[in-house]
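Escalation from tier 1.

The customer reports that the assembly of two entities below gives different structure tokens on two consecutive runs. Tier 1 could not reproduce it. I'm attaching the input and our single run for tier 2 to review.
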Amino acid sequence: MNKPDKYDCQEAFDRLDDYIDRELSEEEISLLEAHLCECVHCANAYKFEGKVTDCIKKKIAHLAIPQGLLERVNKALDDCDCE
Amino acid sequence: MRVVTVLQSTQMDRARFESQLSPVLDVAYGYAYKLAGNQEDAMDLVQEAAVQAFRSYGTFQQGTNFKAWFMKILTNKFYKSKAREKNRATTVPIEDAEDLYLYREAGKAGVRDTAEQIFDQIDQESVQKAIEELPEEYRVVCLLYFLNDFSYEEIAQAADVPIGTVRSRLHRGRKLLQKTLWQIAEARGIVTAAQGGSK
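Tier 1 run:
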């Protein structure tokens, strides 16, 4: 039996997170992208979800280390060394 | 002679440990802050995790992922901390959301094409608060993902759960987050109730 050369909508939907999160194999990516080339609805949903993920990542900025943290950690490691 | 060798070895371990800890300290603090909900508890968590990591440094396999290893220690410290109990009380229960929640709501509201602009109007603080209010099991994996850009395997290591659990928690966490963000957009008038109409 020949292997399908692309996913259907449900198979594509099931892999949405994995695709955005770069967790799919080369073969899965190829089958998925073949579907997205033909299905506007899925392609739009994928594009939209990808943008939402990027936006959230952008908005979760890293916090600057508060003054004193490095000293606290070093002091704790010094004390730990002495034990 | 032997004492000198042991001392030198300890100093080398310390120097090596610090060289691996330093580059991850800022992201570790950010993670700890979002778990604990305040600066003091976050600093305590990072300090305790650093001490624990240094004590266990002999078990760390050089060449593997120090950041994920350290985040696992930090996550475990959080699970055992008083900060966890305090912050748990602030977690708001959220009802489940449909798949593609924002996509569907934006479609119903006729603003799908401008979703990015709508999202840009939601301030950073609100997004961070939305994540901080997620139930703990979802918050941990979402933070490890969105903050660290970890792979599922790295999240599994850091959160000490199987990859399948990472996948399902991240999926549900995303949906809950999307629902909260849409509600914020409605509450702020970024999308009008007439446009929105979500329940």
